[in-house]
Specification:
alpha+beta; three-stranded antiparallel beta sheet; single chain; globular; 12% strand
C-alpha cells in the first residue's frame, strides 16, 4: 500500500507531517498543504506510538510500532513486523464484520506504520466503565463481532487452502504469541520477574500459586491456546480494544492476532467485564453507589453471550461451507437434527473455553505485568485489593470449574455472591 521509504525511524509530532505528507492516501483526506496539519500523540498503550493527525478537512489515526515493549523499554525488544499482522487482521475483520473496525488508508511495512480511520467522538470503553457510563447497543455489536469473525475465519466457513495459507502467515507472529503464552498463562502462577500486585493481596496470591487444581487447569488452557489453531483471533480483545460513543461501538488494535481457539477472544472480553464489575465500588461516590451500574455490566455480559450464540447458530445454518461438519453429511441427507446436535456440541466447547480463558485473564490482569485501569486507578490500596481479590476469586472458579458452570445466569449469580461476601 505504498512506502515512505528509508530506514525505520520513529515518528514524532514534529516530523510526522513532513514524512507522511507525500502519501497520496493521506493527503487526499487531510489536504496537500501540510502546514495546516496538526499532530497530537495519544498513545497510552503498552507497545506503540499513536497520533491523531488533523486538518480543516478531516482527521486520521497514525499508529507506528516501536522496536520494543513501550511499557518496559528497550530492554524488551519486539519485531516491527507486528504492524504487518495488525494490518492483515484489520483487513480480514473488515471483510467478516463490515463497519466494526477502522478502515485502513495506508500501510507501510518498512516504517511499521498504519494510517486508519479516526473514530470521533468515541472513547475507550474501559474509560467509560470507570466513569459509570452506559452504551446502548454495546453488547449486540460485540456479540456479533465475535460470532462473525470467529466463525468466518475458521474451517467452518473458509476455503481450506486459503485458511491454511493464512495460518502459516500468522504463525510467524512468534514474539507476540510468546507474550501471551508467558504473561497470561505462566507468569501469574509463580514469582516471575515482571509480576507485580497490590501488597494487600500477598496472602491470597500465595494461596493461588499453591493451588494445584488452578495450576494444572491453567496449563490445560495454555495447551489449548498453543495447539488449537481453530480460527483467526483478535488476540487481545478486552475493553481497552473497544471504542464507544452514544450510538456506536468499534473494535481496534488486533496486533496480537493469531490462529487459536474460538473461546479465547470471548473469554478475554467477558473476563474484562467481570473485572470491571468488581472494580465499581472503587469508583463509587458513596457505598453501594454503583450497584445499579454493576447490574448493567452483568446484563451486558449476558447479552454478549446470547447474541454470540444466536449469530453463531445462524451462521452455522446459513454459511457453513468449509470442510468441517459439511452439509453433504447432514442437511443434504435429511439429518438436520444431527446438524443441530453438532452445533450444540460446538457451542458447549466454546462456552467452556470462554469461561476458562476469562478466568485466566482475570488472574493475569491482577498478578502479571499489565493490569487494568479500572483497578489501578483506585487510590485506596485496601479498597483496590478488595476489588481485585473478588475478581481473583471468580477467576479461580472459572478456570477450575468451567465444565460445571452451565449458564451465564449461573456465572453472574456467582459473581453477585462473591461481590456481597465479607471483605476478602
Amino acid at each position: 500500500m505504498g512506502n515512505i521509504g528509508g530506514t525505520y525511524e520513529p515518528l514524532s509530532v514534529k516530523t510526522l507531517a513532513g514524512r507522511l505528507g507525500p502519501v497520496t492516501a493521506i493527503s487526499n483526506r487531510l489536504g496537500a498543504d501540510i502546514s495546516t496539519w496538526t499532530s497530537k500523540e495519544i498513545g497510552d498503550g503498552n507497545l506503540n506510538l499513536v497520533f491523531i493527525v488533523s486538518s480543516p478537512l478531516g482527521s486520521v489515526i497514525v499508529k507506528q510500532a516501536l522496536p520494543y515493549v513501550r511499557l518496559v523499554g528497550d530492554s524488551w525488544p519486539l519485531p516491527l513486523k507486528r504492524s504487518f499482522f495488525e494490518y492483515h487482521a484489520l483487513v480480514r475483520q473488515a471483510g467478516r464484520d463490515p463497519g466494526t473496525v477502522p478502515e485502513v488508508y495506508h500501510f507501510d511495512e518498512t516504517q511499521a506504520i498504519i494510517v486508519m480511520e479516526f473514530f470521533t467522538p468515541h472513547k475507550i470503553l474501559r474509560h467509560s466503565l470507570i466513569a459509570g457510563e452506559k452504551h446502548p447497543g454495546l453488547a449486540e455489536v460485540l456479540g456479533l463481532f465475535c460470532a462473525r469473525t470467529l466463525f468466518r475465519g475458521s474451517d467452518l466457513c473458509m476455503d481450506t487452502a486459503k485458511r491454511k495459507a493464512d495460518v502459516a502467515l500468522f504463525a510467524e507472529s512468534v514474539e507476540l504469541c510468546d507474550i501471551t503464552e508467558t504473561l497470561v498463562f505462566s507468569d501469574p502462577y509463580f514469582n516471575a520477574e515482571r509480576n507485580h500486585h497490590t501488597r494487600q493481596l500477598d496472602r491470597l496470591v500465595a494461596e493461588l500459586r499453591a493451588d494445584i487444581d488452578l495450576k494444572v487447569e491453567s496449563q490445560h488452557l495454555k495447551s489449548k491456546f498453543c495447539n488449537n489453531a481453530e480460527t483467526l483471533l483478535h488476540g487481545d480483545f478486552h475493553t481497552g480494544s473497544v471504542m464507544v460513543s452514544e450510538s456506536e461501538t468499534k473494535v481496534i488494535d488486533p496486533e496480537f492476532a493469531l490462529y487459536g481457539p474460538m473461546g479465547f477472544d470471548t473469554g478475554m472480553l467477558l473476563g474484562n467485564f467481570w473485572m470491571a464489575y468488581f472494580a465499581q465500588p472503587g469508583h463509587a461516590d458513596t457505598p453501594g453507589g454503583r450497584a445499579a451500574y454493576q447490574g448493567w455490566i452483568l446484563g451486558v455480559v449476558e447479552e454478549i453471550w446470547a447474541v454470540f450464540s444466536a449469530e453463531f447458530s445462524r451462521l452455522w445454518r446459513e454459511e457453513r461451507s468449509g470442510i468441517l461438519y459439511q452439509q453433504t453429511l447432514f442437511e443434504d441427507q435429511g439429518h438436520r437434527l444431527a446438524s443441530e446436535q453438532a452445533l450444540a456440541h460446538r457451542l458447549q466447547h466454546i462456552w467452556q473455553d470462554t469461561l476458562g480463558f476469562a478466568g485466566v485473564e482475570m488472574i493475569r490482569r491482577t498478578l502479571s505485568l499489565a493490569h487494568i485501569a479500572e483497578n489501578d486507578t483506585i487510590e485506596n490500596e485496601e479498597l483496590r485489593a478488595d476489588c481485585e481479590a473478588r475478581g481473583l476469586r471468580l477467576g479461580r472458579q472459572l478456570v477450575v470449574n468451567r465444565c460445571r458452570l452451565h449458564s451465564m445466569a449461573t456465572v453472574n449469580d456467582l459473581a453477585r455472591i462473591i461481590a456481597k461476601e465479607a471483605k476478602q
